[in-house]
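dumping this here so i dont lose it
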């Protein structure tokens, strides 16, 4: 080889003269690129260096919520009660004695150490830790004097025979055997629930790190005598992530295989190296761009860079092969590059955008991990348009074959031509009939097997791992040793909010017991636990365990006995206040058919007689509830993904070729291969799951490349030689594109087939399925596409009936534009744009610094804002307390029930209802005073962050220390976020009296002291903003000394607030698990829930918020003047 700048005398002419380029926008683009190739090359090098550095910041992670369909109705229930009854993200650690039972000192002490280590693992919800050595595990028995109960293992356990016997007896008396004690008493378990976010940083919990922590516990305590089995979502994710790291090995194998095949095919080290460089560059760009979009790689999307490399090689081969043919035809390197760019940019870019469409449609699946896969893959193929269609031609333009190399390669350009001449017969109807008949037969066979395709998991254990993986062995061991199984489906029974307590209503308990009985009789159910059954057993115990009395009692007092005992189990059976209860269904496995059957039985119960005005049974929580939701989303999405995929790719082909017949020739082979892929999945017992759903989209998106390249080449040949037959045009296209297509298909097939060696079964499955689709899609394009064209496109004498459109580039540009516009919309990830600078400027003009109207209203009843009240009123002293700064203001008028209609538009609905219900009340209205004021540093931050704050997935992001992130809210949700993160000063310390007026004019009064401190007043700021509050009940005397301590992550970017309650009568501080949503607020007599504090202080995703607009109304603003107009 020799390096040449232009290679021929006409090189400078090509650079300088627009007339040497093709007509249309493709020619204009070529002119701009090649006349500026040197600065562009340096620009590409600089971008690669910058993004290569950025790629070093990329993280590999997986969160529990990323893998579940959060918008599904089951998951709405799951998230609502996650903090109450515990999430599905549990970890189970079983200690098994290989040489005896659990009743010996060494075993119990080892279990205690494991329990303590689990307790202190960062991210474990410590109140959830359960084992026979924790105080929340107790037994209850009937004795002569009534009931007796205690912990299973005494706190002073010393290992003596007396204590060993005590533990054995206590355990046998309890109902924990089969749950956390093995049925044969040879193993015992530690159970814990994980939080969604790291309690120290507020970031998503790193499940891989958590899994490694539990693996360390296993290695520390597993011996020849003891086997430690660990299962749970975090552990499975850690094992999957560790296995996913093996993708680097497959990348190296694929790189070596690709290099060897490329060199064999091209016969040139230079072409091989350039193709590999331009295949690696888009991978570097992709990995470098991901951190800018706030994305990380997870066990699923970690395969995408590998796939991008394979696709990039495919397109690079088309470009280098075309360049080789042009140079061997006598053109210099620059001219060859220019000609290749003009010929291949349109079909190559359209093919890549078809790939992007294939990835985009996966976004129909409402699961964050799948949608991030969509974004990652779409971003990868989008940057490939730049690297493969611009960078590669620029690199090749600086090269030229030496005479020796050209002579060596001559003759290789005819590789495969003899085969293509023979296959040309498929473009004639005689041979085409046989090809179509074989295709129809294949479709019938595929349909026969594909009808058995199932949705969801079809094996035991974690299907992402191989059956002989340690994790799946642990699943098998725990399932064998314990009676209840490891798969849990929880049904949440929600009582009427106006009910005194559904737990003590016999009709409600009857339905719970009926549902429990029906579930026990359902195939696939191992065990069922509910409050109804617990109360029945309690009644039996009160009757000296006589089986005849195992039933629900008739009156509330007796029901209350069982409920009282149930409270000792914490929130296992019901929430505090008994507004919600659980029916826990333990399934024998989590196969899709089992889950579907159980869910259908529950839905049938609900439809027949389940839900009424007393109680509603809501699906679903527990890990099986998550699987059920995921299966339903995948099942519903599968049809839409396929429909959107084929519709969008068909539209792309119609726009490009302006022919429905050509579109059918390209799409029908893809549809056949998709059907055959479904049949292969059914034969291999691979279900349609989150992991496999993208395979068809990827296969079709990549497979359409072959058809586009072939038909584009055919139409180009027909345009230049109208006298050609369809067969001749097809053979010409095969000579130009066929050899490269076969080579790339084989290369990609071999590359992805290496995934079958992965330790992860889902990677192996994806590799085999993609290999099948890549190879068979190529065969369909070469064998079936021409046969269809022989009937749909050819006319008499095999002449093409297509009207070759000279404006194909224009039509293709429309397709390019249409698809390109979808990419940024997709990459937005539902992010709502920040406020533009022009609107931020209004905060210093017609709006106040926090977004209110600065001027007066029309009638002057609301004056203009003039800066607010920034100094104390005359006579104010700290020790004296409040002083009314407007004591001289005169009453304007009063609103009561009599004149309410006159002022109805100025009175809120709640106040209208109050005045109507109590005619003796009135609302005094005084002149409006606009006293609102904030420190300058606060308003400066509002203006600074207003242009960056935005909603992303319903969560406010990029708002820094602003206390009004959306001073000009565009939606109800933005307005609510302003309330949630409002300015509260550094701290407050107030005493207030709270009087609750109950129906019948009875009242209850309480005096409360509230002290809060915002994190702006703390020495060390955390990762997110927080409030710490202490509420102290001072009066009445019987409750004096009760405290509630609250830790509030402002805005709920973490999933829950934390609280602790000190009960003065019990002298006990306990953590409250469900201080959110409808948990009762302190000292309000049940008339207000915790989320109603300060107007609204809960998780914003609880409601759909709508912005009603601005409105003038009267409300209470000061202690002395009961109302003022605002």
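and the seq i came up w/
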């Amino acid at each position: 080889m020799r390096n040449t700048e232009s290679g021929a005398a006409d090189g400078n002419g090509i650079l300088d003269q627009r007339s040497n380029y093709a007509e249309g926008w493709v020619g204009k683009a070529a002119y701009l690129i090649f006349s500026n190739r040197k600065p562009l090359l340096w620009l590409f090098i600089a971008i690669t260096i910058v993004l290569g550095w950025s790629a070093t910041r990329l993280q590999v992670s997986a969160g529990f919520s990323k893998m579940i369909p959060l918008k599904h109705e089951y998951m709405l229930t799951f998230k609502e009660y996650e903090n109450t009854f515990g999430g599905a993200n549990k970890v189970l650690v079983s200690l098994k004695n290989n040489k005896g039972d659990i009743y010996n000192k060494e075993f119990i002490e080892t279990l205690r150490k494991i329990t303590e280590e689990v307790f202190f693992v960062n991210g474990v919800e410590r109140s959830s830790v359960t084992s026979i050595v924790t105080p929340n595990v107790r037994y209850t028995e009937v004795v002569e004097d009534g009931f007796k109960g205690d912990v299973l293992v005494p706190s002073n356990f010393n290992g003596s025979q007396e204590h060993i016997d005590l533990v054995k007896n206590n355990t046998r008396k309890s109902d924990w055997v089969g749950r956390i004690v093995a049925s044969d008493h040879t193993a015992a378990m530690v159970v814990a629930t994980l939080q969604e976010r790291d309690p120290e940083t507020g970031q998503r919990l790193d499940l891989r790190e958590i899994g490694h922590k539990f693996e360390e516990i296993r290695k520390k305590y597993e011996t020849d005598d003891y086997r430690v089995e660990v299962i749970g979502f975090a552990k499975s994710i850690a094992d999957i992530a560790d296995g996913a790291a093996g993708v680097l090995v497959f990348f190296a194998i694929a790189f070596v295989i690709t290099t060897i095949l490329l060199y064999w095919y091209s016969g040139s080290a230079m072409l091989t190296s350039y193709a590999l460089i331009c295949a690696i560059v888009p991978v570097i760009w992709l990995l470098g761009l991901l951190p800018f979009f706030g994305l990380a790689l997870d066990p699923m999307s970690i395969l995408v860079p590998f796939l991008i490399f394979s696709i990039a090689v495919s397109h690079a081969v088309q470009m280098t092969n075309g360049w080789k043919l042009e140079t061997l035809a006598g053109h210099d390197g620059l001219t060859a590059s220019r000609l290749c760019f003009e010929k291949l940019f349109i079909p190559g870019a359209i093919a890549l955008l078809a790939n992007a469409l294939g990835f985009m449609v996966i976004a129909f699946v409402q699961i964050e991990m799948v949608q991030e896969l969509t974004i990652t893959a779409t971003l990868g193929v989008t940057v490939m348009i730049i690297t493969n269609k611009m960078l590669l031609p620029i690199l090749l333009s600086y090269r030229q074959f030496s005479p020796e190399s050209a002579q060596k390669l001559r003759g290789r350009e005819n590789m495969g031509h003899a085969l293509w001449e023979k296959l040309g017969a498929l473009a004639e109807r005689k041979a085409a009939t046989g090809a179509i008949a074989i295709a129809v037969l294949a479709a019938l066979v595929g349909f026969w097997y594909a009808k058995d395709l199932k949705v969801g998991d079809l094996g035991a254990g974690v299907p992402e791992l191989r059956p002989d993986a340690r994790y799946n062995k642990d699943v098998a061991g725990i399932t064998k040793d314990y009676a209840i199984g490891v798969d849990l489906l929880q049904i949440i029974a929600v009582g009427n909010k106006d009910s005194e307590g559904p737990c003590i209503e016999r009709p409600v308990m009857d339905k719970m017991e009926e549902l429990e009985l029906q579930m026990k009789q359902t195939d696939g159910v191992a065990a069922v636990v509910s409050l109804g059954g617990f109360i029945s057993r309690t009644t039996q115990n009160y009757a000296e365990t006589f089986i005849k009395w195992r039933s629900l009692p008739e009156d509330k007092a007796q029901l209350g006995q069982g409920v009282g005992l149930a409270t000792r189990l914490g929130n296992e059976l019901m929430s505090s206040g008994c507004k919600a209860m659980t029916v826990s269904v333990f399934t024998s496995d989590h196969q899709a058919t089992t889950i579907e059957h159980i869910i259908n039985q529950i839905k049938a119960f609900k439809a027949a007689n389940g839900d009424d005005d007393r109680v509603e049974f809501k699906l679903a929580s527990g890990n099986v509830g998550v699987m059920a939701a995921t299966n339903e989303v995948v099942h519903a999405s599968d049809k839409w993904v396929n429909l959107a995929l084929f519709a969008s790719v068909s539209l792309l082909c119609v726009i490009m070729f302006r022919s429905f017949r050509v579109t059918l020739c390209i799409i029908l082979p893809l549809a056949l291969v998709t059907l055959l892929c479904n049949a292969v999945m059914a034969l291999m017992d691979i279900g349609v799951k989150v992991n496999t759903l993208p395979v068809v989209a990827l296969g079709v998106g990549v497979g359409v490349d072959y058809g586009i390249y072939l038909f584009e080449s055919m139409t180009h040949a027909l345009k230049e030689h109208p006298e050609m037959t369809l067969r001749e045009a097809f053979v010409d296209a095969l000579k130009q594109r066929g050899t490269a297509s076969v080579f790339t298909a084989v290369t990609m097939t071999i590359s992805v087939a290496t995934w079958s060696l992965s330790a992860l079964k889902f990677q192996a499955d994806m590799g085999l399925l993609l290999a099948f689709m890549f190879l068979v899609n190529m065969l369909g394009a070469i064998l079936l596409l021409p046969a269809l064209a022989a009937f749909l496109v050819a006319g008499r004498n095999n002449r093409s009936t297509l009207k070759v459109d000279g404006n194909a580039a224009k039509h293709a540009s429309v397709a390019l534009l249409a698809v390109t516009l979808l990419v940024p919309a997709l990459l937005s990830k539902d992010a709502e744009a920040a406020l533009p600078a022009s609107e931020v400027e209004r905060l210093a003009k017609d709006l106040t610094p926090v977004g209110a109207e600065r001027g007066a209203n029309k009638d002057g009843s609301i004056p203009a804002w003039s800066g607010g009240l920034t100094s104390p009123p005359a006579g104010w002293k700290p020790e004296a307390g409040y002083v009314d700064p407007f004591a001289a203001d005169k009453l304007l008028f009063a609103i009561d029930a009599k004149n309410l209609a006159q002022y109805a538009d100025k009175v809120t609905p709640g106040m209208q209802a109050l005045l109507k219900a109590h005619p003796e009340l009135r609302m005094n209205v005084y002149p409006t005073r606009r006293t609102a004021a904030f420190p300058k540093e606060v308003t400066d931050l509002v203006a600074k962050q207003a242009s960056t704050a935005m909603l992303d997935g319903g969560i406010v992001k990029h708002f820094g220390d602003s206390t009004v992130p959306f001073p000009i809210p565009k939606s109800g949700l933005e307005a609510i976020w302003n309330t949630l993160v409002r300015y509260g000063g550094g701290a407050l310390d107030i005493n207030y009296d709270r009087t609750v007026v109950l129906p019948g004019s009875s009242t209850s009064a309480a005096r409360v002291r509230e002290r809060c401190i915002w994190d702006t007043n703390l020495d060390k700021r955390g990762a997110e903003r927080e409030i710490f509050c202490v509420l102290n009940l001072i009066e009445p005397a019987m409750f004096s000394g009760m405290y509630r301590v609250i830790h509030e992550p402002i805005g709920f970017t973490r999933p829950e607030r934390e609280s602790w309650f000190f009960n003065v009568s019990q002298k006990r501080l306990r953590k409250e698990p469900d201080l959110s949503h409808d948990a009762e607020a302190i000292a309000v007599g049940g008339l207000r829930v915790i989320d109603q504090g300060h107007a609204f202080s809960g998780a914003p995703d609880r409601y759909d918020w709508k912005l009603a607009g601005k409105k003038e109304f009267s409300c209470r603003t000061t202690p002395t003047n009961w109302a003022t107009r605002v």
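Residues 622-657 form the longest helix (36 residues).
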